[in-house]
Amino acid sequence: MELAVLFVLVGSVLSLPPPPTPEVYIGKCCPREEIMLDEICRPLNETDQTEWVPDVQPGVRWVFQTGLPLCGTRQLWPVYHNGSDRLRLLPDGSLRHFIVEDPTLSDDEIDGEVHLYHDYMDGLYCREKNVDSKTKEVIQFAVVCAPEVPV
């Protein structure tokens, strides 16, 4: 009898659905189906590009929050992912902006123990793909709320 109850309990536990994958909110500057063309949101069909997709860990269910961040009294500040500025989404959905002295370093060689960085929490940044209409160069781009400066 006790063994039968144990089998029923184990069977019940094994048949439970897995816990839901947590949602991670990520700021996207433009509405869905749009990217930036010369820093202005434009429909994808006006470009030869695909929509910006965040580079996040597998198994993470991300949800876009679209639009520019609401910074209050702080200024909006554009940041381009290039040699001296690097942008990385963290697993919790915040954005890490690295300031890199050696522009020849690959993204994989950059870490927070050696390089200066600032983290922008959900709502204080948005990410997007930006296309230069003249050169057709595609640049990863962010708009952030400038960090508060202590007085």
**CATH class placement:** Mainly Beta
Supply the CATH architecture: Beta Complex
- Helix and strand pattern: HEEEEEEEEEE
Rg, Cα atoms, Å: 21 Å
Largest sheet: 5 strands, mixed
Q: Which band does the percent of strand residues land in? A: 35-45%
What name does CATH use for the topology?
Methuselah ectodomain, domain 2
Supply the helix-strand structural class. mainly beta
- Spatially, the strands of the biggest sheet line up as 3-2-9-10-5
**Which ranges are low-confidence, i.e. pLDDT below 50, for 5 or more consecutive residues?**
none
Overall body shape = globular
Integer count of domains: 1
**Oligomer description:** single chain
Q: Helicity, in percent?
A: under 10%
Note the total helix count: 1
N-C termini distance: 72 Å
Q: Mean pLDDT across all residues, rounded?
A: 83
Number of strands: 10
Question: How would you describe what is shown here?
Answer:
This is Putative G-protein coupled receptor Mth-like 5. The mean pLDDT is 83. This protein has a single domain, classed as Methuselah ectodomain, domain 2. The protein has 151 residues and is mainly beta. It is built from one helix and ten strands.
